[in-house]
Structure formats: structure tokens, C-alpha cells
Write a structure and sequence with these properties.
The chain is of the alpha+beta class and 209 residues long. Helix content is 33%, strand content 22%.
Length: 209
């Protein structure tokens, strides 16, 4: 008979986190009651609808500016256990102005949409121009980092976001976001070179008109 003890390979800490999430989302303070209500069908687990849509290799979604400053983003990401590189931290700490409440349409070009094993930055920028996409600023970059999880990026079929903003301050590089095998968030930088080559699992972030 097939073994139906399905949690045998799940670490105790992850089971504990699961029950805590159920308690938090349901507002139930008793863990035993929370589990009992899920098992009885009084509480149902449902998959959230996607935060984005995709068409012709372009992922589109919207962010809302909220007046959060660069240093405030560094602090917020720190609380979420982001690993922020020194160069990335320097870029985030650069001054920028925000118009709170303004909604911005965003677009991500998937490198595989160009149907090549490797694509260059020059080709990505040419594709962006074809769709009238604009370079993002640092604030929209932070909002995108805050919006998506490792599972979201995997669901998109991507491994990394490359933010196609203009260089900031003394740094010629641009920001990138990827997740480690342990779902840790890594916010770093990469070379901003027109001839740089990228694999098929990269997503390049722009502002949509």
C-alpha cells in the first residue's frame, strides 16, 4: 500500500511556518483550531491570481509610487533578509524624487522571446524600442523588487531580473535581482555593456507607455 504520510520529507521548521501562515491569514490564534478548520473544509487554501499578464514574451503589470526613499528601501529590504551588494546599496541610497500615488505601467522582456540561445543588451534595447518601452528609474526598480517573490519569478520562467535604468552616480552598472536555492533575495549589480550576452532565462525590466 502506498505510503500516504506525505509530510515525511518536510522539515519541522517549514511545517511550523505553514501553520503560522494559516493562523496569520485566517486571524485564528489557536494553531490546533486553525489546522482542524483546514482539515474539515471550513478554511480553504486557494492560489492567488497572478500579479501580471504575459503576451508575446512581454510581462506587464503595474506599480504605485509611494514616496519611499532609497535609504528607506534599504532598511525595508534588510528586514526582508535581502542580501544587498555594496554597489547596489550605493545606487539605492542615491537621491530620487517620487510622486506618491502615481501608477506606473511596467514591462519585462523575456530574453527567450527573441528566440536565440544568447541575446545582447543591444538587442534587448532594440526590442524595447520596438515596443516604445522606457528605462525605469530607481524607485520603480525598488517597487518591482518588493512586488515579486522567488515563486513568482520561477512562475514567469525566469531566474533573474535586470533593471534597465540609467547608470547612477559613479557606478556604470545596473541593478539585478535573483533568488538563491534557499529563496534568499539577492539584490546586486551587473555590467551595463551593450555587448553583454544573456541566456534565455533573464527578464529585462522597463516602463511601459
Amino acid at each position: 500500500m502506498k505510503n500516504d504520510f506525505v509530510i515525511s520529507g518536510i522539515e519541522t521548521g517549514k511545517l511550523n511556518a505553514l501553520v503560522k501562515n494559516i493562523m496569520f491569514q485566517s486571524g485564528i490564534n489557536d494553531p490546533i483550531k486553525a489546522v482542524r478548520m483546514v482539515n474539515s473544509g471550513q478554511l480553504r487554501v486557494s492560489k492567488l491570481s497572478r500579479k501580471w499578464k504575459e503576451e508575446n514574451g512581454i510581462i506587464s503589470f503595474c506599480v504605485t509610487l509611494d514616496n519611499t526613499t532609497g535609504p528607506e528601501w534599504v532598511a525595508l529590504f534588510g528586514k526582508r533578509n535581502f542580501h544587498i551588494g555594496e554597489n547596489a546599496k550605493s545606487i539605492l541610497n542615491s537621491p530620487f524624487r517620487s510622486t506618491g500615488g502615481l501608477k506606473i505601467n511596467m514591462a519585462i522582456i523575456k530574453s527567450r522571446s527573441l528566440e536565440k540561445k544568447f541575446v545582447t543588451t543591444r538587442e534587448i534595447l532594440s526590442e524595447a524600442q520596438r515596443f516604445n518601452l522606457l528605462k525605469p528609474n530607481i524607485e520603480t526598480t525598488c517597487l518591482v523588487c518588493d512586488m515579486f517573490s522567488a515563486d513568482d519569478i520561477e512562475d514567469m520562467g525566469l531566474s533573474c531580473f535586470i533593471f534597465m535604468h540609467e547608470p547612477v552616480g559613479d557606478s556604470p552598472d545596473i541593478l539585478s535581482l535573483n533568488f538563491g536555492n534557499d529563496n534568499s533575495c539577492n539584490l546586486g549589480t551587473c555590467c551595463n555593456d551593450l555587448n553583454s550576452k544573456w541566456g534565455s532565462d533573464f527578464g529585462f525590466v522597463f516602463i511601459a507607455p
